[in-house]
Amino acid sequence: MRRAFGVDGESEVQALLMELFTLPADSLPPSAARLIAGLAELLRRVEDTYEQNERDLSLRNRSLVLSSDELNRVNERLRDEAHAQAQAIETLRGTVNELLAASDMPIIDEGAAGLDKLSALISNLVHERSDIQLELEQQKFALDQHAIVSIADRAGTILYANDKFLAVSGFSREQLLGQNHRIVKSGAHPPEFFREMWRTIASGEVWHGEVCNRRRDGQLYWVDATIVPILDERGKPRQYIGIRTDITERKQMEAALRESEQRLQIALDAGSIGLWTWNLQTDQATFSSQWMGMLGYPPDAFPHTGQSWANLLCPDDRDSVQAALNSHLEGRTPTYEVEFRLLHRDGTWRWIMASGRLIERDGDGKPLRMAGTHKDITDRKSVEAQLRIALDNAEAANRAKSDFLATMSHEIRTPMNGIIGMTGLLMDTHLTKEQRHFADTVRMSAESLLGIINDILDFSKMEAGRLEFEDGPFEITPLIEGVVDILGPRTKGKDIDFSYFIPTEAHGVFSGDAGRLRQVLMNLAGNAVKFTEKGAVTITVGARHVSDDTTWLDVSVADSGVGIPEAAQGKLFAKFTQADSSTARKFGGSGLGLAISKTIVDMMGGEIGFTSKVGHGSTFWFKVPLRCISRVQPAQAPDNPLAGLHVLVVDDNETNREIFFRQLHSWGAVAAMADSATSGLMAIRSASLSGSPFHVALIDHHMPGMSGLDLAAVLRADPALAELRLILASSGNPGEFAEAGKRLGLSAVYSKPLRQSALLDCLMEITGKRPEQPVPVHSGPATDTATGMALRILVAEDNSVNQQVAVGLLAKLGHRADVADDGREALNLVQTCDYDLVLMDMQMPNMDGLAATAAIRALPGDKSAIPIIAMTANAMQGDREICINGGMNDYVSKPIDRRRLSEVLDRWTERVLGRRKNSCQPDSVASAEPHAAAAEPDIIDKDAQEGLIDALDRDVFIGLLTSFTRSMPTRLREMESALSDADMDQLKRTAHSLKGAAANLGLPRLAECFSHIEQAGMSGDHPAADCWFEKALGVAETTLAALSSEFGT
């Protein structure tokens, strides 16, 4: 640039530029001015460019110098690296060739492979080695999980032990390594065992065996061991690898199996049990030595086949054995079990009990093999035969005992009927206090004796399995109240409140054995009264309707008596057992009541139990299922019959108050309670002042402080309480309060326990709530008949005392009675007089009750339909059936209880009314009773004869029958002679005797003939007697032939 402008230096350039810039602007053209203005910038830029080029040139020069040096150094380094790489490749090739040779692969020649190929080969080999290593590790893991592994040197020193070895032996790895294998030696093997092992492995061979070792804690364990020698290059062992499996559990099972087999063998030997197997298709069998020995044969005495066994089988047992075998093979029974006889070597028959099972079938499902046992039961069979003989003898003895009990029952009950009946009649007369005490003691003693007799008879029935149960309709309330009526007098002289409660849900008609329920309740409540001197006895009834026709009756009897010791509670329901021996001495009793009660309840499908605490009393309970016929309450006890009635109960006994409250509430009454006469008085006055007075006050007489009569006197002295009705309840005789009751204006005086039905009757009566046409609530036996109608009754009884008892009881019940001394007289009276009903004793001279009944049933017209009620002192099984089957309508047992007799008479009153109405009609038709128009009776009454055989024993019955048949020709000749002589009296007596005997022996057609002859003799009708005698001859011949065929008489 300086050369272009002709200047030498920078300063000249600057001076030149200054001159240009100082030129006047207006002296220059505009374009020249602009050029001069930009010239300085142009020169600066040119100068900068030159300077940059000079710098770049300088840098290039320096770079060329440096690059030349660096290139020399790099070349030197590359020559060194190339030489090193060549050496590395050669070394790598050698390594690869070694690996290839180890893997039996061809090696790489020198220069044949570059680095890439060698790298690829190495990568593949590494991967293969890794896979092999992984597989080895997995195999080692699997081996460690199952096997016990150790490595030992030639001396047996442990060099390696896996985790399984540690776990099984109980040692840690530190405790094992460096130790000899003797550390786990158990001492269970002899020295020769280990010497043989060392000889084997020292020779380089593998050893296998089972070894017993010992854990660190001393316990033994078994291993199945394999020891493998690791050989050196000379073929000598340098190490030993031991691989073991824990077989301790298997060894223990084997030991247990051996022990079990030994025990089985001992049991088979001791129990004389033989084993057998049988191939059903080849008939091949195996019989154990015990099997052969029990029959006396050596093991090889005969071929072991099914046929050999069949040859020993008793012919009489073949069918039963074949049936049992077929049943099992066809799958009808799970096992083959049968008893049969096999022939012993000594010629005797041995009883065998065989048990077996099919254990294999062939491919077609056909039976192939069976196995089982034989046991010799000959001795057992002998004992069973002896037991059968003993049982037959025992049953014969039991029948004799039953006959004896029946006879004794009759003989005892007959005088007992007189004692109890006469005592009852006596106590209804005017007696002094001392006389009444004596009479009451006699009555209670007689009833106690009767209770013991009944218990013994029931026990006899229980033992014989003949305890009978009836199924008939009944109501709960009369049943409970009947028991209360019977037991109530026993509380006299004791400070006991005897009460009961029957809820509304227990009303209705049920079906079951009311007599047995009454018996159970009598036992439980009787014991409660017996063992309670002071306090309360309460009967509570519940009913649970579980379905439309099934109801569970729940009854409990709670007392505050002596209680039962805990030690005696477990045996309380046992026979002849009482809680304390002193109990029997103090209170008496047979100890059978609870045992009989439990049997009855169990047989009715129920439950019975108790809770008790000494000094606090006991609660006995039972529950039985009953069939519910109707839940509808009786018409005489409608729902809420006392609705709106306000009643105050004044009683110091909490239980009585609670029961009265519940009962009054169930009747719809508004009830309040007071626990003393004073509080009762306050309650009555307070209610009167409040405008809601009580209508009735039910007051207990015996209360501390102010008595019931005292309270009644105070109330009657208050004019404001004149409308209050007062009822007095007392544990004493109500007659004692009669005068005071009239004086104080008492509405009623009742003796405790107070009947609920009687209380309801009384409350409805005194408050005017009774319907216009009242139907009395059934409250058990009354003092008159249920209808108030006096019946005319014939009593057929040969015992004079029993006659007086029956007549007296009937008179007390409002009936008129005539007496017949025997059945014949009863028959005559029925024919000649009009009776509403007959009470017929079963056993009478001349003609017994059954014969008399049969004769009455044979009468023409309505006479044959008269109700006949049996009276018998027999109490054994079948008595009732004999009576009913003999034509009687009902049954009462002796001693006759007034309540029971009243109940029976009440049942038949409606029938009697019907008969009376029919008899008043001029053209009355014959009764529809079966006996009124009975068809000609059978030659032999088998049912009657079976009943007699049961009662008398077959031999006794046949003896009676033989005596009768042998005397028949003589007696018939007597009748024929009487007819020839027109001796009608003799004819009548002979016919009567034969009629009774024939009827008793179950010969009804013959008895009918003799009955007609007797009637003809009584009426003097000779032609009729002749006619019937001719018929009797033919019937007698037919009868004797039938008896000869049936009994051989």
UniProtKB/TrEMBL annotation:
Q: What is its EC number?
A: 2.7.13.3
Instruction: Tell me the PROSITE patterns matching this sequence.
Output: HIS_KIN (PS50109), HPT (PS50894), PAC (PS50113), PAS (PS50112), RESPONSE_REGULATORY (PS50110), RHOGAP (PS50238)
Q: Which residues form the Histidine kinase domain?
A: 407-628
Q: Which reaction does it catalyse?
A: ATP + protein L-histidine = ADP + protein N-phospho-L-histidine
Question: Any idea where the Rho-GAP domain is?
Answer: 1-100
The Response regulatory domain extends over 646-767, 792-909
Q: Which SUPFAM superfamilies match?
A: ATPase domain of HSP90 chaperone/DNA topoisomerase II/histidine kinase, CheY-like, Histidine-containing phosphotransfer domain, HPT domain, Homodimeric domain of signal transducing histidine kinase, PYP-like sensor domain (PAS domain)
Q: What is this protein called?
A: histidine kinase
Query: Where does the record place the HPt domain?
Result: 953-1049
Q: Which residues form the signal peptide?
A: none
A Pfam family annotated for this UniProt entry: Response_reg
The UniProt entry, under Gene3D superfamilies, shows: 1.10.287.130, 3.40.50.2300, Histidine kinase-like ATPase, C-terminal domain, HPT domain, PAS domain
Look up and give the membrane topology term: Multi-pass membrane protein
Q: Which GO terms describe its molecular function?
A: ATP binding; phosphorelay sensor kinase activity
Q: Where does it localize?
A: Cell membrane
PAS domain ranges (all copies)? 149-190
Assigned GO CC terms: plasma membrane
Top enzyme class, one word, equals: transferase
List residues of the PAC domain: 207-259, 336-389
Q: Which SMART domains match?
A: HATPase_c (SM00387), HisKA (SM00388), HPT (SM00073), PAC (SM00086), PAS (SM00091), REC (SM00448)
Annotated organism of origin = Magnetospirillum moscoviense
Coiled-coil segments on the chain, per record = none
- Would you say which domain of life the source belongs to? Bacteria
Entry-annotated residues carrying Phosphohistidine: 992
- Keywords recorded for this protein, A-Z: ATP-binding, Cell membrane, Kinase, Membrane, Nucleotide-binding, Phosphoprotein, Transferase, Transmembrane, Transmembrane helix, Two-component regulatory system
Q: Where is the PTM 4-aspartylphosphate found along the chain? A: 700, 841
